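Notebook, bench 3.
Goal today: get a predicted structure for Efflux RND transporter periplasmic adaptor subunit from Arsukibacterium indicum so we can plan the truncation constructs. The sequence was checked against the plasmid map this morning, with no discrepancies at the termini. Length recorded as 411 residues. Pasting the sequence as submitted so the record is complete.
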Amino acid sequence: MSSFFVKVILPVIVVVVAIAGAVGLSKMRQPPEKNDESRPAILVNAVAIKPDNIVYQIKSQGMVTPKLETSLVSEVNGRVVEVAEQFVAGGFFTKGDVLVRVEQSDYLTNVKAAQAALANAQAMLAEEKARVRVAEEEWRSFTDGTAPALGLRQPQLASALASVQSAEAELERAKRDLARTEIRAPYDGMVRSRAANIGQFISRGSVLGSIVGTEVAEIRLPLTDIDMAFLAMPGAMDTEANTVTLSSTVAGQQLTWPAKLVRTEGILDERSRVIYVVAEVTDPYQRQKQAQNQPVLNFGRFVGATITGTQAEQIVRVERHLLLPGNQVLVVDKDNTLQFRQVEVDRATNEFAYIQAGLEPTDQLALSAISNPLAGTVVRVAGAGSDEPQSTDGTQLAEAAAAKADKVKEQ
């Protein structure tokens, strides 16, 4: 009996009790509490749109070169007997200075010979004039008719006059050659290179050196067709619209020089597809001291240039990375939702985009980096009635949120 109870009845009782317990527990179970899931609005940085009048600044760069550059070439033959002290590379000179002098002995002799030949020709002319007067008196003593030209020695007189003119020309040539033995500076400038030395024999056509003018420096600035559209060229603008500011780092110091746009070369470069404009700087080496505390601008220096262009009205300037493909920008509208605005771009550079139309007065420009933004997404603007830090960097926003969460845990 006991064996039957243990093997049969007891297992059945255990199963029944387990089933009854499970049913009872299932009836006592409370349903899970339902909470409406709410996602917090995205925190973004935004700035109000403020149209303003803008004067475009056009960037370029170029090399400083002299406006005048001359190769000194000998026009006579001879031995160099004198070279000016300032006729060395980098030496400064003024207009009219004698840079090189050639031996003058032979040319002085030529001048004296030409003077003697002229005096002889003049004496022959005077003698021939006297003969003409005698011939006229003799003709009148015999007849009252018109004397023939040959009888009055007119051909001989013309020949004597031609001899005088030829002698005068030879004297002028001799004096000119004598003057050419002194190679003088044609303008104020600086010596770039020298090729003549004392004792050297030079011939007509020999290069004595190279000089450059220091009165005006030129800078050729390449511009694209787009840049030219915002540039008012000389002759069709006011006096301030063509100003140029040159800049360069010299000995670790940033220096600037004022310049003026004077012309365009008018030819589009076939390879680079740019057109060159020319700016000028007066007295780059400050020899005339026209500007106080103005640094020297050396020839050959590479400089950056900022050209003052045309003025545009009611333009919104935004950073270039905020301009999306298709000329769209992401804004926060008056309902604090993200919207894409199709805008009209007046000008775009590597740094900024200048928007002319397409934005609403109530729009705020979204500055934060948002992955996969969707139009109509509700956002929170940092700094608008909240204590969230303003930032244009999504990383900084994430770090601020993490710091706030750690503070809550500590409390």
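Residues 104-180 form a domain with the Helix Hairpins fold (CATH 1.10.287). Confidence is low (pLDDT under 50) at residues 235-239, 386-411.
Flagging this for group meeting.
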